[in-house]
Design the sequence.
């Protein structure tokens, strides 16, 4: 009888803990919206002929025949951000409110915990307006990763960077993402964004995620075209001063003015040659 009483109490305690954990979960409604959106997307994909893809000017000349050769689109870039907020919870709330219109595939906390918010194959709304190389719609071809960091005084924790590198290793292998295609938000949107600031890009590059310059560099030739070099690396040089600033946010960090020093030019020349 005593054993049964203990078992009953243990079961009751477990049930209370389970109910308490369920009742404190704050994202039931956003989970419902996510599932509904995913279901609606699947309907669009399955529709034959595809919905809203008829070319009006062709009238009856257009038809649809399903091919046997198809696949799902895969991401080709990773964009790293800092949240500019004070906690992971604050960022999760921001990304689960419809009115904000922003999201990311992953949020990585200061403690190293990783929260995925969008399926890798779906489009998150993280990059916004910008340009990298010829890409202007980065949201449609990238994974967005938000690092929990206020962008001013927060240090980058070891646990956070370790978790990021684990995520990046998986993404790179799974989707064959080129080494040069791991960039920051500021790289894609010079002048509009400055994140992530003071970021350990060298650590990432040593693991194969993004480019970094060599310890020993040569002086560029006198006719070295810095504007062309920035463009070849990927920067939008339409507003050159912002392109220089974004380049220095990523690769120089100790000086993010909009003028290239001789040392900056050595870095740029080194990276330019890696990009050819």
Sequence:
């Amino acid at each position: 009888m005593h054993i049964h009483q203990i078992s009953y109490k243990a079961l009751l305690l477990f049930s209370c803990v389970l109910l308490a954990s369920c009742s404190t979960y704050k994202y039931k409604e956003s989970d419902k919206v996510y599932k509904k959106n995913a279901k609606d997307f699947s309907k669009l994909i399955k529709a034959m002929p595809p919905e809203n893809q008829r070319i009006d000017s062709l009238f009856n000349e257009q038809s649809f025949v399903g091919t046997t050769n198809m696949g799902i689109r895969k991401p080709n870039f990773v964009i790293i951000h800092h949240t500019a907020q004070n906690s992971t919870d604050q960022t999760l709330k921001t990304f689960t409110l419809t009115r904000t219109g922003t999201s990311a595939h992953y949020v990585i906390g200061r403690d190293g915990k990783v929260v995925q918010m969008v399926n890798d194959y779906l489009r998150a709304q993280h990059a916004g307006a910008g340009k990298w190389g010829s890409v202007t719609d980065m949201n449609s071809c990238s994974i967005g990763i938000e690092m929990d960091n206020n962008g001013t005084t927060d240090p980058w924790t070891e646990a956070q960077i370790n978790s990021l590198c684990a995520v990046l290793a998986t993404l790179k292998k799974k989707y064959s993402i080129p080494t040069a295609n791991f960039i920051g938000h500021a790289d894609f949107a010079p002048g509009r964004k400055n994140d992530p600031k003071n970021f350990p890009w060298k650590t990432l590059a040593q693991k194969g995620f993004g480019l970094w310059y060599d310890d020993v560099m040569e002086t560029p030739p006198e006719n070295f075209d810095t504007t062309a070099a920035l463009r070849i690396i990927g920067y939008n040089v339409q507003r050159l001063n912002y392109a220089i600033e974004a380049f220095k946010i990523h690769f120089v960090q100790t000086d993010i003015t909009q003028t290239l020093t001789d040392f900056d030019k050595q870095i740029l020349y080194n990276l330019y040659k890696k990009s050819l």
